[in-house]
Structure formats: C-alpha cells, structure tokens
UniProtKB/TrEMBL annotation:
Locations listed in the record: Cell membrane
InterPro entries in alphabetical order: ANF_lig-bd_rcpt, GPCR_3, GPCR_3_9-Cys_dom, GPCR_3_9-Cys_sf, GPCR_3_C, GPCR_3_Ca_sens_rcpt-rel, GPCR_3_CS, GPCR_3_vmron_rcpt_2
GO molecular function annotations of the record: G protein-coupled receptor activity
Protein name: G-protein coupled receptors family 3 profile domain-containing protein
Amino acid sequence: MSFLQWWSLFYPVSIFPLTEPTYTQPACSAQGPFELPAFSSQGDFILGGIFPLHYRVELPGTDFKDQPLAVHCRGFDPRAFRWALAMRLAVEEINRSERLLPNHTLGYKMFDSCATPITAQRAVLAVLNEQGEEQSPMCSSGSPLLAMVGESGSSQSIVVSRTLQPFCIPMISYFSTCSCLSNRKEYPTFFRVVPNDNHQVKAIASLLQRFSWKWVGVVREDHDYGHFALQGLKREIQNTEVCLAYDEMIPKDYRRERVLQILEVMRVSTARVVVVFSGEGEFYPFLKEFVMQNITGIQWVASEAWVTANLLAETYPFLDGTVGFAIRAGKLPGLREFLLTVNPDRYPSNPMVQELWEALYSCSPSPSLSPSRPLLPPCSGQEAILDQHSAYMNTSSPRVTYNVYKAVYAIAHSMHNLLYCQPGTGPFLNHSCANSNNVYPWQVCVIRQINYYLHNVSFSVSGEEVNFDQNGDTTPSYDLINWQRGEDGIPRFVTVGMYDGTKDSGKELVIQEEKIMWEGHQSKVVSVCSASCPPGFRKAIRHGEPLCCFDCLPCDSGKISNQTDSLDCDECPEDYWSNADGTLCILKVVEFLSHDAMGIALMVIAVVGACLTAAVLTVFLHHRTTPIVRINNSELSFFILLSLTLCFLCALVFIGEPTSWSCMLRHTAFSITFSFCISCILGKTLVVLAAFTATRPGDNIMKWLGPKQQRVIIFCCTLVQVLICAAWLIAAPPFPIKNTQAYHSKIILECSVGSQLAFWCVLGYIGLLACLCFVLAFLARKLPGNFNEAKYITFSMLIFCAVWISFIPAYVSSPGKFTVAVEIFAILASSFGLLFCLFAPKCYIILLKSDKNTKQHLMGNNFKCIN
C-alpha cells in the first residue's frame, strides 16, 4: 500500500495537486456564548493572538445543578495590552510593506487568556471557531487560521499548543520559557522567540555564585513554568556551594492561609535572597499579603516572567533593588506613536480600551461598557497619555513587546518563503511548492510546510538575527536588570550586565557591579546559612542539614588552611609548624641547650666548680707536707681533685648545638672521668679499710695496697670503662638528631646515644664502682681515729648514688633540652657532693684549725699514717 493510499484511509483529502477539499456539513453548534473580548482584523491570512490582558480570574461557585457561570477576569494589565498592540503594529507594517508578502494581507484575532490555562483554552477554541459566526467553520470547512502568537505563561502555552497540534497550526510564543516545551515529540508545532528556562536557571545559578549567595529561598507558581524552573535550578546548583533554604509554591487558587504559611517560612528563615519563578498575575496578590506582614530585608531575584513588570514596580516600592534576567531588549520604531493613538474616543466600543483608561486614570469614559465593575468618575476619553504611565508607555527598551513583534515577523517571513517558493526547492512531493490560493491547515499538516519554513527562517529585525534551532528555540541571551527608583519616584529597570549562553563556560555572565543598587541601599547583600570559615578554620558539616549549614572548627596544631571555607586542613611539612592563627606553616623553633639563661647558669656553676676544685688542689699542694694531706696517700687525693676538675669541665661539652664530635665526646668524657674519680675513691677506701684491719704486729696486708698497687687498681677500673666506651664508639657511636616527636611545634636538636645498651652499661659500671666503694666505706665507718675518712667517703657515695638514682627517671621523663640539663645537673651535683664531702673537712682543718693538723691529733690511739 502506498503512502497516498494509506493517507486517504484517514484523511480523504488529495495531497497533490493541492486543491481545496469538500466536506459534508456536519450537524454541530456552539454549546454556549464566549464572552471574552477580542481584537480582530480581516486579511488573506489570519493570525491568532492570545495575551494575558488580565492577570487573575474569579472562579464562580458551582452547585453541580445548574450550568456554571463564566469566569470573571480581574486585574487589567496595561503591559500585556501593549503586547497585543505590538502585534497589531507589526501586522499593519507588514501589510504596508512592498517587500514582505506583496499583494497579500494579514489579519488577526486576539483574545484574552486572563493568565490561566482554562481561559487560554477557551480563547484558542474561540479563535479556531471564528467566534461571532452563527455557523462554526470548524464544523464546515475549517478556520483559515494559519499560525498563533502566544502565550506568555508556559502552562497556557502547553494548553494552546496541544489544542492546535491536531490541526498542525504552528504557534510562536513570545514569553513562555518552560524547558518542557522544547520536547519536539510532545510539541512539534511549538516555536518561541524567548530562551527556554534551561538557560535562565543557568544564568540565575551563575548570579548566585557570583555574589556568594549560598543560602536562598525559592517561591514559585503552581504551574509547569514554576515546576520545571525549580527542577532546572536544583540541577544547576547541585555541584555548587548554593543550597535551598526552602521551596514554597503559591497555590493556583489563592488561599490566604497557605500564603501566610509561606510568609512565615520566609520570616523565620535566615535566607535573605529569594528567587521567584512566577508570572506577574500570580505574584501580585502574594506581594499584597507580603506588605501586610511587614517582612523586611529580602533581596529579590526575579525570573524573566516579572523582572520588567511595571505594575509591580510601581505598586510595591519595597521591591527596589530587585535583580533578575530579562530577555534582550530591541528597538521598535513607531511603537510610542502607535500607542498614543489608542484611546476610548477612537475605539468607543472596545472594552479593552475602556479598561485601559480605567487603569491609567481611574475613571470611566463609557460606564455602560462596564456595568459589573465599581463605579468610577466619568472622563472624556481624550486625556493625554503621560510618561508616568510606564506600565503602558515603557517603549524605551521593549522586551516582551519586541518578542511579539519578532514572532509576527517570523510568521510573515515563513509565509513569504512558502508563497514565493522556487520550484524544485519546496517541501512537497517532488520538491514542489504550495498553491498560494489554497493554503489551509490540513494541507499544511500533510507535509508540515509552515513548520518547515519556520525551522529554516532567518531574518533580521532591528539589527538582530532571528532564527530557530531544531527544538524551535532561539539564541539564549539575557540582560541583567536592577530595579532602581529615581529622584522623581519613578521606578527604572537599569541594565547592569548580560548573560550570553553562546559564550564559553565561565564567560557567559558579565556584570557591572558598580551600577547595582541593592535592597535597602546596602553595600553588599549576604545570604548564608553559616558564615564563611576564615583561614585557619575548616568546615564541619552539620548532620542532617544542607551542605551550606556548617560549623567552623579551628585547624589542629600542625595543620593550616589558607583559604576561606576550607573543607579540610593541610598538614605542614615535617620541619614546619602552624602559626597561632593556623593560616601559615612556619619553620619550627630549633631548640637545644644553648647559651640561654639556663645554659649560662649551668656553665657558670660548672666553671665555679672547676675553679673551686682547682683552689682545693692548690691548697693541698701548698700543704702537701702536713699530716692531713699525707694521710691515706696524698697522691690519691690529688688524682681525685684532678678528676673532679675534669668532671666539672666535661659538663661544658653538653652545652651548645650538638655535633657528631660533641655527641661522642659528651658521654665518653663524662663516663671516663667519673670512672677515674670513683676508682681513686675506691682505692682510698681500700687503703683505709686495710689500715684499720691489720690488727697484728708484722701483718703485711698493706704491702699489697701500696702506691703501685693503688695505681694498678685505678688504672684497671678506669680501663674497663675506656674499653666499654671504645666498643660503644666503634659499634654505635652517639650522633646528633632532630627530635620532632617531643614537641610538635619544636625541633629538638639532641644527641642520640646510638646504643641504649652501651649507654646504660656505662652508667651501670659507674654505679657499680660507686656501690662497691659505698659498701667498703660503710664497713669502715666505725673504725677508730679522730679523723676517720671512711665516714666522709660513705656520705659522699651516699650523695653520689642518690643523685644518679634520681637522675634515671628525671632523664627519661624530661623532654627536649631539659634532658641535657638534667644530665648536667647530675654531673655537677655529684661532683659537688664528692668535693665537699671528701675535702671540705680537710680544708677546714688546714685553713681554720691548723692546731689539729698534727699527727698526734689525727692518730688518736691506733691511727696509722700512710704516705
């Protein structure tokens, strides 16, 4: 079966050649009157126009017994009336043109949609049915309507487009922006000269991010426009720092209780920026209630549906400072003069002109045309229209009006291309062209010729190139508008930027911020759930709340954040630490026992100890022949004083920045000098003990502890320590390290012992010698004699052991440079203990009690002097 045969089963109309079909007269009639007023004009081709000349309706009551009364349209909108007149202006210009559609004229039928879908549907059916005729042409031969200009609201356009779709009548919207209308499968005959909302929500999202408005509310109308705009906005801010504080919907049937709930949400919310996706008609009564609730401090972001609504700007001064994206403006020469020609005197029977005058002057030039409205004082109808009537006379930068103008010209250019098609280039079978005498909707439907030409139309209006993409959309471009009020009190829509969707990502939005006047004349508008976290802090998201709501926690020590609203803090490198503010990594303080107050004090004490020991040595050398010096081998006393001097001086090696050599010298010098000192004391103790244990005459025990034997004992005991130190230095010598664990904010320069075993072996050996010396001296403490040196050795070893036993826990627990200070303190304390306990009594006798420095006094009964 061929396509023509298949088509004839459903449409008994010949496709080619194009001839006017013949229908039998069906039995049908109008079901009721249609009372909406309209403009109309005859022509060869009729264009339909639907405009929201009123912005709200009053629905009649229904008792389900009688036929419902017709809806009542309320709230005349001079702005929309200007749109309708722009269509008339465009049609008249085209009809006068010798270049566009010569020898053909355009007619029009314009109806009021009252900004509601149900009334818009009645309007489009009225256009199709040629309201006013006794017989409906749709019941006979069909209306000559070829295209529709309308509507402003997306929900109304959806209804109108679906109503026109079976007849394949194309529709060009001048203000419907819902992205859903770009679906070519559902709306194949829909076109528009305004960008769809996908681009608008991208522009609004860019605006919110540009001014760091991270906490915003959304108020929307309960229509497709509001639903799809909200979905688009959520999609655009999904991966940004912008969050929605609330999303409220203005009810279709205005209910004050619901509006009060919305306003209470706005009152308690911390969001200071509110984005509104709504038409002028739905938003007007909402704002009326908003004023009564005395809510202040709101920065409004307007959608293109109301951003240039003069009626709202004039009625509600608190909207000053509003920003929003408006469709691009154009130039319409002659529009102002054309608007000035419309008055009740010229159109006495037109109810729309009557309502225009009532809205502009609050008077009624023809009371008989409006008996249902409140009585107004009469007027002549010849009053001059002033510039103060900006809702009607705003012609300096027409936007929606310009779109209506472009829509009419788009249809005219498409019709011109269709009618003056060159054979072989047409969309018909065999690329034939249409018959200009038989251009009917059903013929258009067969091969989609108007749609074809609309898709391919391209023309220029006021220097702007107009065309459509494959979805019937136009080039996305917006002006950023700011509502400002001049000194004369007249609101002005000031262009402060633009958004061009054709630019590269990130370059679409351009704003002249110095031109913007914010709400309440603020210098800056802030709308955040939580204040930005300054550098040095990080964001901690609150559980169960949007990402924009967070707490600011300071960075942990050793971590920084040098940016605002950091999600996490960065850890500083090993040798760096965070400053007090947590914003910068600074070099850690390098700490060691240097020539600071503590180091100098210890150094002074060590030098004093060495000098004091040297002074004692000098005294002993000077009195080396006296009995007190010669007692128990004076040579050992000199060795002890010499070793104590070295012990005091080795403490100086611990002060200063650790180096490889100083680290090795510290512990070896300390251990060897102390071992030498304790070995000498051990030798002296053995001599004292041996001297008083030789009880029989001729006992030769002392020959085994003569000076040579004493030297051998000292040498052997010291040699053991030397061997331990040598093994330590060879196997695992001490070395300098940077200790970053003791203090996070400091680097401790210290000496690592290299081998813990060797270190404790060294200390253990010194302890062993000290303990052995203590035990032997303790055993000899009660031996006879007026000067029993064993008592002083016992006490000195007791102090020595106490110091070094206390040293162990203090050494382990002291951090940083205090570890070294503890070790120096132990060296100095034990050295002073040995010095004072062993030599203070002798110096006392030498210097102050010289009468007791005699052999008889020192010997007592049994004391033996050994030299």
